[in-house]
Write a structure and sequence with these properties.
disordered N terminus; single chain; alpha+beta; 2 domains; 434 Repressor (Amino-terminal Domain); Umud Fragment, subunit A
């Protein structure tokens, strides 16, 4: 006896979401993605219209195809599986880098990490966090250029000597450093000896949040 073949509401939702991503790119047509995913364009159109079952293999191919056109999406997002953490900025572990978050709406970023991919972090915790990408080498060997950091927002009151932080000053210069408190000043320290400590008044800190997870590359 053959198994019964059914289209689910989830199949329809996935197709509709993928079509919205395709339409978000000026000049991109569903046929451009279809030719990168399946042999038969009509098959892909049936998928988009909720008239065929999605498989994980095809979803992975769609994600790869969309990335070629600058669309960042995860299979987990399309499948509705788990909490994602937005990567909202690149922050300096070297010379000052102006905080550039791209005016992302709350909960959004230019890339995403899924909580299920991060050992030791619950989805409840992940729902409150954001992530930044390291740029620079002042925190070598602990942090390398390009690595991702999970940050606990509004955690300034919890920060103590030796904690690793994301810091932004009144000129929107941002740093990733380890912090110490000396004579009423905030001192941002590096591991790389060629970088000298930087001192700030507490009022200079527009943002100072604690780094809770390092995702090694």
């Amino acid at each position: 006896m053959c198994a019964e073949y059914r289209i689910t509401e989830k199949d329809k939702e996935i197709g509709a979401l993928i079509y919205e991503y395709i339409k978000s790119v000026p000049g991109l047509h569903k046929s451009d993605i279809a030719k990168l995913v399946v042999k038969d364009n009509a098959h892909f159109y049936r998928l988009l219209n909720g008239k065929h079952r999605w498989t994980r293999e095809i979803i992975d191919k769609v994600v790869a195809a969309l990335s070629r056109y600058g669309v960042v999406v995860s299979p987990y997002e399309l499948l509705g599986e788990g909490v994602r953490i937005p990567v909202v900025a690149e922050v300096s572990a070297g010379k000052a880098l102006v905080w550039m978050e791209g005016n992302h709406p709350s909960g959004n970023g230019f890339d995403y990490i899924y909580a299920r991919d991060i050992p030791g972090i619950s989805e409840k915790m992940a729902a409150e966090c954001y992530a930044v990408r390291v740029r620079g080498d002042s925190m070598i060997p602990l942090l390398k250029n390009g690595e991702l950091l999970i940050v606990n927002p509004d955690s300034r009151e919890e920060i103590v000597n030796g904690d690793h932080v994301v810091f932004t000053d009144t000129d929107r210069n941002s740093y990733i450093k380890w912090v110490s408190f000396e004579n009423g000043l905030l001192v941002l320290n590096s591991f790389n000896p060629i970088f000298q400590p930087r001192c700030f008044k507490p009022s200079d800190a527009v943002l100072m949040d604690k780094i809770i997870v390092i995702i090694k590359s």
